Amino acid sequence: MCVPITSRNYCEHYDEGTGLSWVEMSDNFLPEVPSVSEDTILQNITPKHSIRWRHKEIVNTISPAWFPPIAIDPRVESPVYYYNRYVPKQLFQVMAEMTNLFATYSNKVRMKPTIAKEIEILFGLHLATGIFGYACLKMFWETNISIPLFTENMASDRFFQMRNNLHLVDNTATPEYFGNSQVFRDVSGFHGRPTELRMMEGFLPCHRVL
To answer: Cα dist. 35→41, 43, 46 in Å?
Structure first.
């Protein structure tokens, strides 16, 4: 047995045998909405030229209980203090070690070992490049337009050398997800330099005596 519930799109079913009842949703029980013409809708809209803005004080209707008091530390630290909270000192130490390891593994003899303080200076110079409006990085070390912030802290050759060799991870370590890959095991065997080279006989000159 289905008994429609008034003013809702629900229908309550009742089973006399088991004594159970449940509610079923259906669009057939929705009340009919009277059709409204477009002219009637436009009559209820205020014309744009009749709208007038008034300056009134905003009345806060939100309860103060929604805004609990927040304890704010009145101290104001230096910008470096807040920068070090996001970029810790340990990060520069790891980058210095990984950069030296990459330079040694790549057999870059001209690359002198670096330290964490030099990596920190490198980061600071990169941040400073966003302040000055130079179009090229080499312009920061030019003779007539150089900036002491760059020339007094790092040479241009060292800047670009550090920039090209900067590393954060160990390139000599094999990731775990590569160790189980058959493709990686097959390709890793080609890293060694071969002692002999194969050539096709068609490339060799043929000398015959007639």
So the answer is: 11, 15, 21
- In this prediction, residue 165 carries a pLDDT of 92
Report the distance separating Cα 52 and Cα 120, nearest Å. Answer: 58
In angstroms, the CA 38 to CA 157 distance is 74
Which residues 6+ apart lie within 8 Å of 7 measured at CB?
A: 31
Q: Where are the alpha helices (DSSP H) in 116-155?
A: 116-129, 148-151
Percent of the chain with pLDDT over 70: 66
Domain ranges in the chain are 1-29, 87-165
With contact defined as beta carbons under 8 Å apart, do 45 and 21 qualify? no
Distance (Å) of CA 46 to CA 40, 51, 54, 160 = 12, 7, 16, 65
Match 């060292």 to its residue by tokens: 158
User: What's the pTM?
Assistant: 0.51
CB contact at 8 A, 13 and 24: yes
3 pairs with which residues across the strands?
A: 12
